[in-house]
Amino acid sequence: MSIDKSSPIPVYYQLKEEIREKISNSFWKVGECINSERELSEEYGVSRMTVRQALGDLVQEGLLVREKGKGTFVCEPKVKQRDMMSFSEVANKLGFKHSTEVIEFKKMKTPIEFSDIIMFEEIYKIVRLRLIDEVIVAVETVYIPTDYCGFINEDLLKGSLYQLLASYGYEIERSESEIQAILIDDYYKKLFRVDGQIPLLKLSSNNITKDNKLLFVEESIYRSDKYTLEVNILTREGKIR
């Protein structure tokens, strides 16, 4: 592909998409160093500044990473969740092969720590492993009142919980969440099936319907080297600060 400098599409954007396509077609594979700024500048007949802008965008998008003194390398693809979506929706949207393992599903009395927000005597505790290309990227624990679920079993829980609840007439309008980094220990190493250190993020959220009903409480642990959570913070006027 040649760069069309007469096109209304900015030159840096054309170059960025050309590099993205080369990575998608495995011209440069994960972990490989791409051509230098000088080489790309000469190859496409554009300025170093234009190359730097294109590469900078791809670094911000998580497709590339710069290593000082070494070059620019292709990153391992990450699952990136920008809006309030289920894991299944995010994976499908990005074209990833995904699966779910249900490792715990039981009915239990509502724990004391939830008694002030869940006004039901019994809840389901659901613990699921979420996999991308057979790699565990999240451990998801959900607590939901049994009254909200109708019929539910492990096979149904291998799909999208959002879609399952939607079939019962529930729609989540917002999620009140807290995010924190946590240290991996032997328990999480066992769950994620790893031996070494990996970075983890913990997301705790209360998921609420349009009529202000708390539908379920969720605590999810993500591998932050595999999964990115983007948060948009809005003012009351709807502007991002």
UniProtKB/TrEMBL annotation:
Keywords of the record, alphabetical order, are: DNA-binding, Transcription, Transcription regulation
Q: Name one GO biological process term.
A: negative regulation of DNA-templated transcription
Any Pfam family from its record, for instance, is GntR
Can you provide one Gene Ontology molecular function annotated for this UniProt record?
DNA-binding transcription factor activity
Domain HTH gntR-type stretches: 9-77
State the InterPro entries in the record.
Answer: Bact_HTH_transcr_reg, Chorismate_lyase_/UTRA_dom_sf, Tscrpt_reg_HTH_GntR, UTRA, WH-like_DNA-bd_sf, WH_DNA-bd_sf
Indicate the segments annotated as coiled coil, or none if absent: none
Classification via PROSITE patterns: HTH_GNTR
From the Swiss-Prot or TrEMBL record, give the protein name.
HTH-type transcriptional repressor YvoA
Q: Which organism is it from?
A: Clostridium oryzae
Upper taxonomic lineage: Bacteria, Bacillati, Bacillota, Clostridia, Eubacteriales
